[in-house]
Amino acid sequence: MRILITGAAGFLGSHLTDRFLSEGHQVIGLDNFITGNRDNIAHLAGNPSFALMEQDVSTYISVSEPLDFVLHFASPASPSKTSPLGYPNLPIQTMKAGALGTHNSLGLAKKHNAKFLLASTSEVYGDPLVHPQTEDYWGNCDPVGVRSVYDEAKRFAEALTMAYHNFHSVDTRIVRIFNTFGPRMRLDDGRSVPNFIQQALRKEPLTIYGTGEQTRSFCYVDDLIEGIHRLMDSDEHMPVNIGNPLEVSINDFARLINEICENPAGLNVNASERLGDDPERRQPDITRAKTILGWHPVVSIREGLSKTIEYFKSKLGQQKA
Ligand code: UDP
C-alpha cells in the first residue's frame, strides 16, 4: 500500500510510520512540526519508501501518486497551559487541524478512493458522567471551556468523517485514543508522563495537580499501535475505543514512577490547581475492540514505564552532551 499519514513526526504518527515501513508499505508523512519532532523521523532520512511533505494539514493537500490509505493524526494533543506545545496555547491551530485538516484529509482520501482513519480521542467524552466510557456515550463537554478547542475539533472531525462515509461512501474508521505513553513523547509537552518522569529522574517531588485522586487509564504505545492496525484491517465504521482499561489515580501512577526511578522525594500534592474541565475519571470500555478486533493491551504499565524511562534518560543525556 501507499499510505499517507498526517502528523507523521508526532509521537503516534512516527510509530505508525515505522510499523507500515517494516511491513513493506510506502509512507508519505505530512507534518508542519508545530508539535511534531524531527528526531522522531530522523532515522528515515534516505529511506526510499518514505517521503516527507512539510506542510500544514489545514491547507489543501495535493498528492499525485495513487494512495490506498489516509490516516489523520496531526494535532496538538497536550492540555498543558504552561507548555508552549499545549493546545490552550495553540488554540486556532488545534481547531484548524481538527476541522480543516480533517476536511482536507477526507477530501484527499475521496479523490484517491483510499480508505481513511481518523485519530479521535477520549476527550470527546469530556468530563464523563458515564463510567467506564462506552462508545455510545455522548459525552459531557463544555463548548467554550479551556479544553474545547481540542474536544470540539475532534467531535466535529468525527461528524465530518461519518458525513463522508454516509454521503460520499468513503471507507472510514474512527479510533478514540485514550491516554497513551511511550518513547517519542515530547519531554516538554507538559503532560503528566513527561513531567513526572523528568522530576523523578531529577529526584524532585512529583507535581500533582489538585488532590491526585482523579484517575486516568494509561496504555503503552505498542499496544495502541497494534489496536489501530487491527482497526485499519477491519470493516468497522463506527468509533472504537483503544486504550488500557486499567484505571489508576494520578497519585498511584506517580508513586509507581517514583518507585521505578528510585526517587525518594515523594509527591507534591496540590502543587497547583487542576486545569479547568480536567476529567475526574477516565477509563475506556474496550468491549468493542475486544469483540470486533480481538484486541486487548498486553504490556503492563510497569514494563511500559520502564521502557519510557529509558527513552527519557537517553534523551536527557543527549541534551546534556
Ligand atoms: N497532572 C499532574 N501533574 C502534572 C501534569 C498533569 O497532576 O505535572 C494531572 C492532570 O491534572 C490530569 C492528569 O495528571 O488530571 C493527566 O494529565 P495529562 O497531562 O497526562 O493529560 P490528560 O489526561 O488530562 O489529557
Explain this structure to me?
- This protein has 321 residues and is an alpha/beta fold.
- It has one domain: 3-Layer(aba) Sandwich (Rossmann fold), CATH 3.40.50.
- The chain has nine helices and 13 strands.
- The strands form four sheets. The chain has a seven-stranded parallel beta sheet, sandwiched between helices. The chain has a two-stranded parallel sheet with strand order 7-10. A two-stranded parallel ribbon has the order 8-13.
- Helix 1 crosses helix 6, helix 2 runs parallel beside helix 3 and helix 3 packs parallel to helix 4.
- The longest helix has 21 residues.
- It is globular and about 55 Å long.
- The model has no long low-confidence stretch (mean pLDDT 97).
- Uridine-5'-diphosphate (UDP) binds next to helix 5 and strand 8.
